Structures are given as structure tokens and as C-alpha cells.
Amino acid sequence: MSLLAVWRDKLAALRLAGGGEEVALPIREWTGTQRGASARVAGIDLALVWVVLSLLALGLVMVYSASVALPDNPKFARYAATHFLSRHALSLAIALVAALLVLQLPIRLWERWAPWVFVAALALLVVVLIPFIGKGVNGARRWIPLGVMNFQPSEWAKLGIALYAASYMVRKMDTRENFFQAVTPMAIALGFIGVLLLAEPDMGAFMVIAAIALGILFLGGVNGRMFALAALVLVAAFVLMIALSPWRAARIFADLDPWNPQYAQGRAYQLTHSLIAFGRGEIFGQGLGGSVEKLHYLPEAHTDFLLAVIGEELGFVGVLAVVAAFFWLTRRIFLIGRQAVALDRVFAGLLAQGIGIWIGVQAFINMGVNLGVLPTKGLTLPLMSYGGSAILMNLIALAIVLRVDLENRSLMRGGRA
Questions:
Q1: 141 forms bridges with which residues in the sheet?
Q2: Spatial distance between the Cα atoms of 213 and 353, rounded to a whole number of angstroms
Q3: DSSP string of 50-103?
Q4: If we measure between CA atoms, which residue out of 416, 400, 379 comes closest to residue 100?
Q5: Does the pLDDT at position 27 exceed 50?
Q6: 350 vs 169, which has greater pLDDT?
Q7: What is the separation, in whole angstroms, between the first and last Cα of the chain?
Q8: What pTM did the predictor assign?
């Protein structure tokens, strides 16, 4: 008997049982193993995987292109031309293995571990400030040397706040309409992280973490007026921090007028050369490897300002492709989160959406900084810029999203999460 005939018999039996009325077939009847089953329903989200792998591959190529000439600088004279390429490739290998391991962990374990992951993030943010443990670079103490890579605790804190906020909203569903009960514990947690990050200092990471926390509060159902009030308080806190920090205020003024001779060779030096790189790229770019700005004109070309090198070598077309990829990736992560919430998996849904906010907001800030729309913040481009701990935590977070999607698909096929 053909598969179509089997389904006709089942439909007829259900109609008969329902008095002749239309009855929706239970989704668990479709196992995804029958002929014609969609690969997208039956298994992993291949489109998401390929977009992530494409960004990683392009990032690897561009990191090499942006760093190949660095040994000509006396500061990097002892490095080989492939130094940053090999270290970035090693970081990618470690991150991919870690992501495959994380993909095996059920989301219920992350829900159970959420408070402890957050506590570990706070502990690491304290440890990095301890002399002889934390590594300082250019006046900032943000890294813990681990031999194969320098680990940045703020990257762990982004995952920690996403887990904690999602767990908190699930546990405190009944307090969402009470402003102080719903917001105060999260505000205290953010306050602790903010103090520790500003001591490094790393205001850019704090902005991303604050966006993750506020976004999950909003998506978790906190009253709109309460959310607006919390957002205003946070904005006021950022304004106050800038007003009380002369060097931060000076950086903002420099970014508002980067071509002013007072700033062009000082605080706005990176931005002016980033804009020159985009200008040289025009529509189709100077060709892979053809960047001039990476030749010791543009500082941190392989990390914070990788997009400028992409713009110079691959042009507007290359930058547009990167922007489109991040837009699609963020949107897809949000759809996975919404699907989880629709399946009554609130923690999984909020966690996935929090990770979507993390990737989307950080990419937006990095792009805005490179294009002169936002003040320089020292944030890397997710999945692409050189940086071992950032790549590691980005892929771990995306593995969690894929796990949410896999469990969603299992439930829709009638299985268990």
C-alpha cells in the first residue's frame, strides 16, 4: 500500500471519529523518515550552519590578509607572516570541537546550571583584575593567559547573563507586572558586572551585556512602561559615566568630528583611516590582499577594524554580503527562539533570543564603529575578527541555539526535547 493511501485511511478514520468534521492530524504522526521528508525538519538547520561556516571562512581569510604585513612593524618583528593566521586557525579548531560537544548537552542542563555559569562569570571578572593573573594590553586588563589563547572573561559573561536572565524570567513569571520585583534583581546583577567591566575598562562589552539583559526582560513579558523606564535608567547611567570620564567624552567628540586636525592624528586616527579604507574600496574593492591601510596605517586591522579591510579589498559588495549574512543569522536565531516559546519552552526560547541579541548587537556596534556611526568601543566582529575567546564563546552560543532548534524539531515530530 502506498504512503498516500495510508494517510487517506488515517484521515478517513479521524473524520469518522470526529463525526465527519475536519480533524487536524497530530504532528507526531510525521516522523520525518518517510520519503520526501524535508531535511530542514528532519535534522539540523543546514542553512544556519552554512552561513556560520561561511563567516568563519571569510574571517580566516581576511585575518590573514589584514595581518600578513604586521611582521614588518618592529613591534611584531619576531612573528612570522602566518603567526596570526595559525593562531586564529587553532582557535577555530578548538571552538568547533567545543561547539560539537556543547551540541550534545540538553537545554534542561543549561537551565539547571544557569545561576552557576553566571557566578563563574562574576568570579572570572574578578580574577582578571588581580595583578600577575590578568594580562594588560594598551592600558586595559581584560585577558587571562591560558597558553593556547588569552581568554577574555567578558565573553563568558555575555553567555552568563543570557542564561541568568532567561532563567530569571522563567522563575519570576508571576512578578512581571511589579517593577521593583521584576527589575531590581536583574539591575543588581547588571550593576555588579558593570562595576567589574568598567574597572578593566571594557564599556563596549558592558553595553552588549546590558542589551542582552534588557532584551530578555522585554521578550520575557515585562510591562512595556517598566521596560522603557529601565532602558532610560540605563541610558542615563551611560551618559553619567561618559560625563564623569573626560577621556571617554574626548573620544566621543573626536568621533563626531574625525577630520578636525585636532583629532585626526590623535583620538580619531583609527576612524579616519577606517573611513579612508572604505573610500578606497568603492564598489568592488581593490582585490583580495590589495589593502594599503593594513600596512601599518590602520591599527588593529585584524581585530576591531577587520570590516574596514573587507571594505577596502572587497568593496561595498563584500561589506553588503557580510551585513546581509549577520542580518539573516540574527533573524534566524530569533525565529528559533520564537518557535521554542510557541512550544512552551520559555527558557530555551528566551536563551536563543538573548544569543541573537548578543550576535546582532555586537555586530551592529562593530560595524557602526568602523563606519564612524558609533564611538570606538573595542568590540570585535563576531565569528570573523581575530580573537580566540570571542570565537570560542560565539560558537558555543550558536551550538546552544542549534540544540534549541534540534529539540524544537524533536517535539514537532512527536518526540521529546
A1: 136
A2: 11
A3: HHHHHHHHHHHHHHHHHHTTGGGSGGGTTS-TTHHHHHHHHHHHHHHHHHHHHT
A4: 400
A5: no
A6: 350
A7: 32
A8: 0.85
When pLDDT is averaged across residues 45-72 and rounded to a whole number, the result is: 94
Q: What are phi and psi of 158, to 5 degrees?
A: -65, -45
Give the model's pLDDT for residue 179. Answer: 60
pLDDT tier for residue 339 given thresholds of 50, 70 and 90: very high
Taking the C-alpha atoms of residue 289 and residue 151, their distance in angstroms, rounded to an integer, is: 29
Identify whether the C-beta of residue 212 lies closer than 8 Å to the C-beta of residue 358.
yes
SS (H, E, C) 187-237: HHHHHHHHHHHHHCCCHHHHHHHHHHHHHHHHHCCCCHHHHHHHHHHHHHH
State the pLDDT at residue 10: 44
Gap between the Cα atoms of 301 and 308, Å rounded:
8
* Nearest C-alpha neighbor of 389 from the set 124, 62, 50, 165: 124
- Kindly report, residue by residue over 110-148, the tens digit of the pLDDT: 999 999 999 999 999 999 888 888 777 766 778 888 877
- The residue behind cell 543588581 is 188
What whole-number distance in Å separates Cα of residue 288 and Cα of residue 310?
A: 9
The DSSP string of 277-298 is: HHHHHTTT-S-TT--STTTTTS
